[in-house]
Each structure stands twice: as C-alpha cells, then as structure tokens.
Amino acid sequence: MIAAAWIALFAPAAAVLAIALADMRITRFQAGVIASGATFVSFAASVTTFVLLLGDDPEERSHSSTLWTWLSAGDFRAGMEIVVDPLSVFMMLVVSGVGFLILAYAVGYMHGDEEERRYHAYKALFVFSMLLLVQSGNLLLLLAGWGMVGLSSYLLINFWHFRHSAVAAGKKAFVMNAVGDATFALALFLLIQSVGALDFQTVFARAPEVFDESGPAATLIALGLLGGAVAKSAQVPLHTWLPDAMEGPTPVSALIHAATMVTAGVYLIARTSPLFELAPAIHDLAGVLGAVTLLLAGLIALVQTDIKRVIAYSTMSQIGYMFVGVGLGAYGAGLFHLMTHAFFKALLFMAAGIVIHALADEQDIRRMGGLARELPFTYRAFIVGSLALAAIPPFAGFFSKDAVLASAANAGTLGWILWGAGAVGAFLTALYTFRLLFIVFWGEPHPSPVKREHGEAALSMLWPVGVLAVLATIGGFLQVPGAWNALDDWLHPVAESIEEASGGTAVFSAVAALLLSLAGIAIAWTVWGRPSDLPERARRRWPWAARTLERKFYFDEAYDLAFYEPSDRAASLAARYVEEPVFLRSLGGLGRGVREVSARVAAAQTGLVRSYALALATGLAVLAIVFLVVE
Amino acid sequence: MSGPGIAAYLILSVLLFTTGALGVLIRRSPLIVLLALELMLNGANLALIAFARQLGDGDGQIFALAVMVVAASEAVVGLGLIVAVSRKRVDLDVDKLTSLRG
Prior knowledge:
Chain A is mostly helical and about 625 residues long.
C-alpha cells in the first residue's frame, strides 16, 4: 500500500524528467502520451492504495512512511514523509483521476503548438506538486508542495509567453499566491516554536495541550494557515489572480480549477482541522469568507463576456461553498463538493475548450450563438455540466451543494446567515450558468464572419469529456442524505465532521435551494433564452450596478491604489531625490577626482631613464639610512 | 690567511659602486651607461667575495658567479638595444629616448 502511494507520487515526476531529458528525441505527441500515461499510472496506484486501505479496520487506516530525513536542526526533524489515510487517498484519487482525464484531453487540444513538450512537462509537474501537497505527512513538505503548485501554475498561466497579458497574469498569480505562502510559512514558524514539530501526528496530538482554545497563539496559527488557503483557493480578498489566470491554455484552466491548485485551500483546512477547531473565530472566518466570495463571484459572473471567465468566477463561487462547509466543520460536505465540483468543472472547461477551438480561439460569448447544432456532443456535455453546477437533481452538484447547505442550516445563527448566502448563491449559480449555456449554444449564430475551423472535436478530446459527463451525472450518489453517507464514513477517522445535517432542516434546505435554482434557470431563460432586450434595459436602468460588476467590485483598482500606486510613487520620488543627486552626481565627481589625481601621478613618468635611476638610488639611500638609524 | 683586512676590500667596492652609479646618473651615452652599470655590479661582486673569504664559506662566491651571469646577459640585451637604436639613425643619447613619458 505504501509502495503504491510512493509510485503514485513519483510517476508524474518521472514523466517530467523523461520529457525534459529526451528533448527532441521524442515527438510532441509522445511527450503528451508520457505525461498523461504517468498520470494514469498515478491514478492506478491511487486506486490500489484505496482498495488496500479499504481492507484495514476503519480506525486504523492511517499509515505513514519516511524515505529519508529531509531537514534536521537541533531537535526539529522533517522527513520526506507521506501519509496514507482516508483524506489523502481521497484527494489522490481526485487529483490523479481528474488530472489524467485533463492531460489526455490536452494531448488533442494542444496539438500543433510549437512548445508542446514544455507544456506536457509542466502539466505533469503540476500533478506531481499537487500530489506532494496532499500526500505529505508533515506541514513543511506540504508547504513545499504548496509552493511548487504555485510555481507550476505560474509556468502554465504564462505558457504563451509572447502574449503580454498572459505574462502579466502569471506574475499576478505568483505574487498573490506568495502572500498566502508567506502567512502559511509564518504559521509554521509559530508551530515550530510552540510545538517543536511539524508532522501531523505530533502537532495534532500536542496542540490541545500546548494551546489554549481561542488563545493568541492558536488564533495566529489558524489565521496564517487560512491566509495560505485563501490565496491558493482564490477567495476574497486574495482572489483577483484566478480570473486573470484564464490567459493560460484551456486545459490548464481545467487543471487549476478542477484537479489541482484551488482545491488545495479546502484540503488544508480539512487536514489541519484540529488546529482550526482550537481557534473557532478563525474557523468561522473561513466560512464567512467563503460566503462573501460565493456571492461576489456569482454576481460578477453575471456580466462577464469571456466564456472562460464566467466559468472561472463560478469556480470561485463553488469554492466559496466548500469554504462554508469546512469553515463550519462539515468537512465531509465540503470535500464532497470538492469532488463533484472537480467533475463538472473539468467537464465545463473541456467543453468550453472545444467551443473555443471550433471558433478559432474566439472566447467572447457575444460573438457566439447557435452552436448546439454544430457541436451536438459538446452541447450535451455542457448541459450535463450546467445542470450539475446549478445543483439540479439527480446531477452530482445537487447532492454536494445540498450537503453543504444542510450542514450550514444546522450550525446555529452564523450557520443560518451562511445558509442564506448559499441559497442566494444557488440562485445566482443557476442564473449565470444558464445565461452562458443559452448565449453560447442557443439562438442564431453570430452574423460576424467568425472562422469556423474544426467543427466537433476529435475523438481523443471527446472521450475524457464523456467520462466526466458520466461522473458529473452519477457522482452525487456517493452520499445520499437519509440513505447512506459513504464519504462521511470514509473520512470520519481523519476529519470528523462537527456539523451534520439532520431531519426537517435538511429537507427544508434542499427544497428551498432547489426551488431557487429552478427560479434561476427560469429567469435565465426569460432573459437570455430567447430574443429579449431585458439585459439592455437593466443596464440602462442601473448603470452603476453594471459598472460595479464589470469592474469586479473594484478589487483590482483598490489594490492598485493601496499597493501599486504608493510604491510606484515612492520609487519615482526616490529616483528623483535620492538616486539623481546622491548616486549619479557623486559618481561623476568621483570619476573627475580620480582623473585629476592620476594626471598628477602620470606627470612623474618623465620617460628619462636617468630620473628613474636617480629615484632608485635616492630610495635606496633613504632605506639604508633608515635601517642604520633604527639599528 | 694574510693580506689586507676586510675594510680595504669594502672601501674599494664602495668606490667602484659609487663611480658606476655616478656614471649611470651623469653620462648621456648609452654605451658609457652600460659600462658604468658593469662597474656597479663588479663593486657588488667584490664585496660578496670579500665577505665569503672573511666568513670562510662559499655562499658569497656563488652569488658572485650568478651576478656575472646576469651581467653578461644584461650586456647582450643592452648592446642589442643600442645597435637597434643606432640603426634607426637616432642620436645615441639616453635623454632623447623619452617616448615612454606618461
């Protein structure tokens, strides 16, 4: 079992090395096959681990294995150490499974790109980083995976390095993530100081003895971890990088949104839940941030015109649900939504990728329309993804979103507030999802001469979409309220949910959310499902609202004002008042001084041999006299 | 061992060395400058050998031999330079050879 877990971890890393070393000796297609094949090996090994772990007694399903001591300082040790327990195996399955489908799809999607080898190597690196993150047995190694995920996302977002906007987006993602990495690292320093170890077992065993509940240390540590989670999972206020990250190729977006990266924050909170439970204020804060994000992102998604950005905002919004879940202590529900979201979000991105391909890289939905006839398979896949995202039964999203909302409804006053946000979010989700669907696939084709290149995509791209469509349809039955709780039971030993749905509130919550979702679809149909001037009228009636949404609630502008502008101004002031007078002018003076002195020295060089001889003789005489006197 | 004491040798050696040094500083013909240089070297040689004899070991003599070798080489190079200069039809005057002025 342990061996299988190590294979799952290192297979993608081996693919990265193989592609990098083989260089031009393999074709681009082979590079893609190596990368996706390695991820499949990883998935197979994860399944093996899972099956073997099933054989254990439920309370003894936690194994760890250390290859070597990675770092030691005094009493502190951190090993190259993995942990195999229900939570990590769950994440391994999602990451490698969905990751494999995306990598397989990318082979077809990226076909013909000049730098395909680099691309496939980066993607395998991304999967490796994420697996390292979810498998690591201590927080330091987790942080290493955390940083590598940030690096891989940077490399992939600005993969098309000739596009200025892509490079800027990559940089933005890296900087925003670095903020989170920093708070995460600070939390680890505090942990080392107070607990003296970073491996999960020791930390969780000793945390209740060392920290007072709600004490400053516990709160600061939880806050630092939350900062990391918020940045990586693109939650308010560190969310602005995610929509810009759409500059990368579409399969990258799918990978970031579904399998790797953004779910890391949710995983972190679930994994370090014992620490968060010692700081209830921060734990609640996670839920509140999730609720704020899911509302803001849902509203912004309503006015976006880029097909990928709409889906990106929907990711933020759905991760908001997961944060609400794990923030309220309903880890099973949050992780359940993580899994179903991985299915339908990867599905939506891949379908969007096929649309973008078919329209020769057009991403503006105002120039799309009537694609249902041209792309029948993609259209159906997109419907499945949309229904799952809008949480319509029996699609996967219904069960998982319902699980989150039902747990919220059971969690007291704060829970009810978050439930309200989630319910409104469900309405918004249905609205923007079906707005996208109607605009892109219904109506008449846009009259402008958009070049139509491909038509329906090749089979190599369609089959992963098909597999995901099936998963998005049936994935929800893993956990049916009132019938069975497979996932909760499985995760129980690691992250025991402190909130569970029950009885009447659960039924009420499910029915209310479902009605709101249906209302959202109905309104989307009235506004965008048929020719209508409603959007225009609304825009004219409330121009400020449209502007606020289009400017994404002015987060970018606020950050510009708060961070970029002051440092830019300080830099130009420093240039004018420090660099110019102090450095530039003093350097000129220094140069002139050296010149003058050397001119004087050069005058001594007369060219007369006799004067040199005289100087020698005089020097010698002086030396001789000095020696005689000293003697 | 008999003969004049060490002082006599040293006085002669200093006389030779000073004559040579004055020659180097004062004379303008490169040939004479070379000759004066040889005088300086031999003044030093005389002192070395005198001390070697006084102390009764061979070190000074070996030094003197080395100085002779150097002096011979120096004469070769110096004379070669002088021939080269005169070929250029330049006056043989060390004060006029000042193209290395800084």
